[in-house]
Each structure stands twice: as structure tokens, then as C-alpha cells.
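Look over this record as teaching material.
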Amino acid sequence: MLTRTEIDFFRDQGYLRIPNWLDAAEVERLKALADAELARARDERTRGAWDLMEAAAPAVFRLSRIASRHEAFRAAALDARGCAAARQLLGEDAVWCVNRHNMMVVKAPRVARPINWHQDGVNWDHPNMLSLMVFLESADAENGCLQVVPGAHKLGLLPPRAGTGDMDLDDPAQAALARQAVPVCAAPGDALFLPLRPAAPLGAEPFRARPPEPRLRLRAGTRTRLGRVEDAADRVRAPAGDGGRLTIRLMARHA
């Protein structure tokens, strides 16, 4: 359960990091499974339609539909703690749903793309959503951790650059917002809650370090509907490391 202080921080700052969401054993198990999925995606003979590569293949950018690739990923996505937190933040009718945006994003060193400044909710039509990310490896400034503009979610959705879902950094006001960003560093097992609509501006630099292995991030999505509890198992449609940074991301929608 989230504390009153945590809930207030989420609502005021537009993000909330919680340490030790997963224990060390859970983290290691998911990392081992992620390594197997990444090895399969790197091989052209076994790569799937939901595996998105970096321009410098065989580096992996994202493995989509991760929750249906192994029961352990699914269990992490549908964990009761995440469901309880979603209900605290969105209302008692909130349920996790992993039919969309459940994924593992891989932050490969040197070749990984940056995450352009954006607001997650720009491509969503629902006014009250959140996401949960669970980190399976460390995220810090050196390896291109997420950056957030605290409190900027209160501004609502900003006009994106024409033809994209990214922020328009040619707009002086939006560029000034991006300069106010703070890094959100996280340790393995930490969780990060983010509102999607309205969403704080987010971005991330490339991973420039040279560790022995890349790092991974697993993301899974959640959705909530007020007045209608959905069975998340019915919403899963299809499948999703490289030694890297992992986070699980869940989205929630409130009707």
C-alpha cells in the first residue's frame, strides 16, 4: 500500500519511485528470462514480429508483449501490489490490463537511441491513466536513465512537434521545461509510477558507458476502467536480456 506521503508526492511531482519493489531473487529470475528472450531476438532465425531492433542490429531496442512470453513476466505485471497501488491512485475500480504497452526496453551501450522529449499521454485518448515501471538493473545518469520535469504534468498535454509525438523543443517554453528535468536514478528492484494523462515531460540520453554487458529495461502496461472490472488475463494478446537495465511498465485507464 502507498502511504499518504507517497500519494501526495505522485500527485504533486508527477512521478513516484519506490525502492525494493522486487526482492533480489525476483530480479535475478526475471533477468535470466530476459537474457534468453534477448538471445532469441538477436538471432535472425528466431527473431519475432514483436522484436524491435536498433539500427545497429543485432542490438535490441524493445521486446513487445513481454507478459505473454513467460508466466514470471505476467506475474510481475499483474502483481497484487501494483493493482492495489493503481486503485489508490485511480480509484477502487482500477485493474491492471496488459493488452497494450507491456514491453521490455533494452538500453544497449553506445548504439541505443535516445528517448526524445515527450509526454506519454499524447497518443492516448483517455484523461486519467498511469504506468508502473519496475527496474531489473540500475539506472543512472551514466547509462541514460529517465529524466522527468517535476510538476509539469499539471500543465496538461503540450502541443507536440508536427507529425510526431515528441515535444516541440523549438518552442522556447517547452525547451525551458526540458531544462528543468531531474534524473530519476533507480536500483534493481525499484519501481517508478508515472501518470500518463496528464503526463510530465520525459526524456533519456543514450547509454554511453562501456560495461561488459548491455543493460535492460522491462516495461509492461496497465489500464483501469471505472465502473467495470476487467479480467486482465482476457486482455493479453501475444508475446515480448542482453545484460542491461530492465523495467516492467504497466498502464492504467480510468473511465
User: Anything to note?
Assistant: The chain has a mean pLDDT of 77. Helices lie at 4-13, 24-42, 71-77, 80-90, 172-178. The chain has one domain: 4-156+166-253. The longest strand covers residues 129-135.
